[in-house]
TrEMBL record:
The gene is gatA. Allows the formation of correctly charged Gln-tRNA(Gln) through the transamidation of misacylated Glu-tRNA(Gln) in organisms which lack glutaminyl-tRNA synthetase. The reaction takes place in the presence of glutamine and ATP through an activated gamma-phospho-Glu-tRNA(Gln). Belongs to the amidase family. GatA subfamily. One of its GO terms (molecular function) is transferase activity. It comes from the Bacteria. It comes from Nocardioides zeae. GO terms for cellular component: glutamyl-tRNA(Gln) amidotransferase complex. One of its GO terms (biological process) is translation. This is Glutamyl-tRNA(Gln) amidotransferase subunit A. The active site is at residues 88, 163, 187.
Amino acid sequence: MSAATTDWTRRTAAELADALAAGEVTSVELTRAHLDRIAAVDGDADSGVHAFLHVDAEGALAQARASDERRAAGAPLHALDGVPIAVKDVLATTGLPTTCGSRILEGWVPPYDATVVAKLKAAGLPILGKTNMDEFAMGSSTEHSAYGPTRNPWDLTRIPGGSGGGSAAAVAAYEAPLAIGTDTGGSIRQPGAVTGTVGVKPTYGAVSRYGLVALANSLDQVGPVTRTVLDSALLQDLIGGHDPRDSTSIPQELPSLVEAARQGATGDLTGLKVGVVTELSGEGWQPGVKARFDETVALLVDAGAEVVEVSCPNIVHAIAAYYLVLPAECSSNLAKFDAMRYGRRVLPAGVEAPSAEEVMRASRDEGFGDEVKRRIIIGTYALSSGYYDAYYGQAQKIRTLIARDFDAAFEQVDVLVSPTAPTTAFKLGEKLDDPLAMYAGDLATIPANLAGIPGISVPAGLADEDGLPVGFQVLAPAMADDRVYRVGAAVEALLARTWGGALLAQAPELEEVAR
Ligand SMILES: NC(=O)C[C@H](N)C(=O)O
């Protein structure tokens, strides 16, 4: 790899777009640089970052060539035309496998593109490949992937977060300038926090879910994973908007997010009212997380914001409610993986003419991992007659109370802030046998999904005790995604002065491994 090639992987998407527009580089060169980087550091299930489950070098280069030809012909181009991207393996892609990190979908190649994928293709972004994830997005570490975990580029013995650890690690390791993630309870924001990248969960319904393999339909949202807030804004402006093919898609335009990010980057927050959520203020969390959070809040005050403390008392029940609503929805969603129509079919051993039920049982037994089975069992129980009111019904009521807490809070303040996650990246294997400990890490991210509001995680520096990234979360009312971008960009700009440039530049260099 030449030095110049390495350089292109270090640029932000906005910088790459400028370089393409200025004729300094071609999309083929950029795409090849990222493919080289993937080949050098991504490795496989046993070594390297392992952010990708499938790399599509040929497809990406063909898309890059087409982009270069359009540019040469003077055709109208999208701002990100020619800038490569990685896509979480939970979105349908024609011609490329979509496994959702599960054995049950091993080898499945969808016959259609998710709306988000179709938009990326139409805008000319070469798709580098599909990124690793916890099976069906269930998890906070990618250790529940059936294809082996992704490793955190800051320390390969640690988790990159989950479920979208592959997308975050790919961006953090300079394997892709942009990635698509999905966030049901934090799967974009928490990986962002622990890898030092930016992750955004848009307002529920702001980005189409058509072609997204649903984990929990009422919570899932597709969103950007990038290294800067401006890059996330460019990407959400592209993938967002109404889609008649998704019945929950909002038929209303969001304000320009790029404009909001540019405004925030001035670092002036005069007149903004910020609420620190009492229940998520970081008290009792990892000291380095709390310290970086408090310092960032102080910077907001210096930038002219008024900061008050706001209580959202029902948030303390968020995890309990989520881990009933989600299993209920996913147990129903996953019923479709019956090995009859598509996906992996396993014939039961020793049965000569197995019935459909026996094939389904064998396929689901072998095709699903432990965490998926756990949630299917919990969800089936919670929805069963006699228990519905006691569990699912109660959880839905708590959900409403949490949404009301946010409504009341946003009458007092413009945005709410908290640390994104209670700890920095933990060691691989540390929480694998303790599901409740794994779930507890979602405390700060889940409430936004339950309420349908937007949230961003922005890098807030490194924890003193382990030198690992900490995330700062900004939440805003539904449809006010521009506020999370404005404040997120301000935090980024104010903090860049503190640590002297890009946080990721401080990550250790990755050793080259064969892929
Ligand atoms: N899917 C998500 O957003 C992640 C969350 N940790 C979960 O396991 O449900």
